[in-house]
Design goal:
- This protein is α/β, with parallel strands linked by helices.
- The chain is built from 17 helices and eleven strands.
- The strands form two sheets. A seven-stranded parallel sheet has the order 4-3-2-1-5-6-7, sandwiched between helices. Strands 9-8-10-11 form a four-stranded mixed sheet, with helices on one face.
- It starts with a strand and ends with a helix.
- Bound molecules: magnesium ion.
Length: 383
C-alpha cells in the first residue's frame, strides 16, 4: 500500500472517490488540487489536512488562501503549483484531472520516481511514448486507474509476464447511445449524452462515452501502457460492464477481470497494489445477472472510435491533435454551442488538417495540442 498520496483533480468524480478510499485505508493525503470549485476544496482541505492545495485558477486561489487563513495549509495556483502538487509532497500521485493539462505534472512526478496512479488518460494519449520511456528510465511505477486498464494490468500481473500475450480484449459498454444510428443522435442534448447506463462519471468522460471517443482514447492508452501494437487490441462491446477487459494468451486461454461497475475498485487497487485490502464491496451477483453479452463495435456509427484507432496507427502528433480538439469540442457541446454530431466532424477535420507524422518532441506535442484547440475555436466561430 502507498504511504501517502497527492490527488490532482480532487474535486472531480475520481478525485472524490480517491479521497474516500484514502480515508477508508488510512492513507495520508499530502496535497490536493482542483480547478475552480473552491468550496469543495476548502471542505476537503479542512477534512484531510494536506500540506498544499493547488487551485488552477489564479483568482479562485486568492479566495481559497483567505478562506484557509486560519490554517497552515499553503495554497498555490497555475501549472507550476499543479506540478508541485504532483511531485513535492507524497509517495504516490493520483492523476485524476481531465485533459492534457495532466501531462507536465505527470512527467515531473515520474522524474521524482513517484508511483503514478494514472486516471488521466489524455496524458498517455498525448505523450504516451515520452511518458512511458521516461517512467522506464526513472523506475517510476505507473498503475492504471481506468477500469479497463486496471483489469488488463491485473490479468497481466496474474500471469507475471507479458511474453505469451497474444492480444488484449478491451471491453466497453457502448455508452448511452449503443445501437443507435448517427442520424438519430446528431442533435442529442448534453443531458442525454451524460446519462450513462452503468457508470457514474464526470461530464467530459460521459460525453466521450456517448461518442465512443472514450473507448478510442482507452485504445491508445492501452497501446502505450502495455507496449503493444494497435493490431494486438480488439475492442468488444459488453453492455453489462461486468467484465472490465480481458487478456488473451498465445495458447488461446483468456483471463478476465470482473467486478461491479464502480470506480472505487480500480482506485483502491492502484493505492494498495501489489496488495489487496478489505473494501465494502461485493462481487457481482452472477445468478441475478443471468447472462453477459458481447457485440462487435459498429465503427460506421461511431466515427470517434474509428478515428482514434486510425490515429493510433498513424502515430506522430495525430493522437495529441485528436484529444485536444475533442476536449474543446466537448466543452462547446456541454455549453450547448455545438451539436452532438458536430463533435466527431470537427475533431476529424482537425486531425486531417493538423496531424503530422514522425516522432514528435514534447514541445511539438504541446504545439500540436494548442493548434488543435485554436482550430476548434476558429472553426466554431464559422459554424
Ligand atoms: Mg474506462
Amino acid at each position: 500500500m502507498v504511504e501517502s498520496i497527492s490527488v490532482l483533480g480532487s474535486t472531480g468524480s475520481v478525485g472524490k472517490q480517491t479521497l474516500a478510499a484514502a480515508e477508508r485505508l488510512n492513507i495520508p493525503v499530502k496535497a490536493i488540487s482542483g480547478n475552480k470549485n473552491i468550496a469543495l476544496l476548502e471542505e476537503q482541505a479542512r477534512k484531510f489536512r494536506p500540506e498544499f492545495v493547488c487551485v488552477f485558477d489564479g483568482e479562485e486561489a486568492k479566495k481559497l488562501r483567505i478562506a484557509l487563513g486560519d490554517t497552515d495549509i499553503k495554497v498555490g495556483s497555475g501549472l507550476s503549483a499543479l506540478t508541485d502538487c504532483a511531485c513535492a509532497f507524497a509517495a504516490c500521485v493520483v492523476t485524476a484531472v481531465s485533459g492534457s493539462v495532466g501531462l507536465i505534472p505527470t512527467l515531473a512526478a515520474i522524474d521524482e520516481g513517484k508511483r503514478i496512479a494514472l486516471a488521466n488518460k489524455e496524458t498517455l494519449v498525448c505523450g504516451g511514448e515520452i511518458v512511458m520511456r521516461r517512467a522506464k528510465e526513472k523506475g517510476a511505477q505507473i498503475v492504471p486507474v481506468d477500469s479497463e486498464h486496471s483489469a488488463i494490468f491485473q490479468c497481466l500481473e496474474a500471469q507475471g509476464s507479458k511474453r505469451a500475450l497474444r492480444r488484449i480484449l478491451l471491453t466497453g459498454s457502448g455508452g448511452p447511445f449503443r445501437g443507435k444510428k448517427r442520424e438519430e443522435t446528431r442533435n442529442a442534448t448534453p443531458a442525454m449524452a451524460v446519462a450513462h447506463p452503468n457508470w457514474s462519471m464526470g461530464a467530459k468522460i460521459s460525453v466521450d462515452s456517448a461518442t465512443m471517443m472514450n473507448k478510442g482514447l482507452e485504445f491508445i492508452e492501452a497501446m502505450h501502457l502495455f507496449d503493444i501494437t494497435p493490431d494486438e487490441i480488439k475492442v468488444i462491446i459488453h453492455p453489462e460492464s461486468i467484465i472490465h477487459s480481458m487478456v488473451e494468451y498465445t495458447d488461446g486461454c483468456v483471463l478476465a477481470q470482473l467486478g461491479i461497475p464502480d470506480m472505487s475498485l480500480p482506485i483502491q487497487y492502484a493505492l494498495t497494489y501489489p496488495e489487496r485490502a478489505e473494501a465494502p464491496y461485493h462481487a457481482p451477483d452472477f445468478t441475478a445477472l443471468g447472462k453477459l453479452t458481447f457485440l462487435e463495435p459498429e465503427l460506421k456509427e461511431t466515427p470517434c472510435l474509428a478515428l482514434a484507432m486510425d490515429c493510433a496507427r498513424r502515430g506522430g502528433t495525430a493522437a495529441a491533435v485528436m484529444s485536444a480538439a475533442n476536449e474543446e469540442a466537448v466543452a462547446l457541446f456541454l455549453k450547448e454551442k455545438l451539436c452532438f454530431g458536430a463533435i466527431s466532424d470537427i475533431v476529424s477535420d482537425a486531425v486531417g488538417i493538423l496531424a503530422e507524422i514522425g516522432t514528435p518532441t514534447l514541445e511539438a506535442l504541446q504545439d500540436a495540442d494548442e493548434a488543435a484547440r485554436r482550430f476548434v475555436e476558429e472553426r466554431f466561430q464559422n459554424y
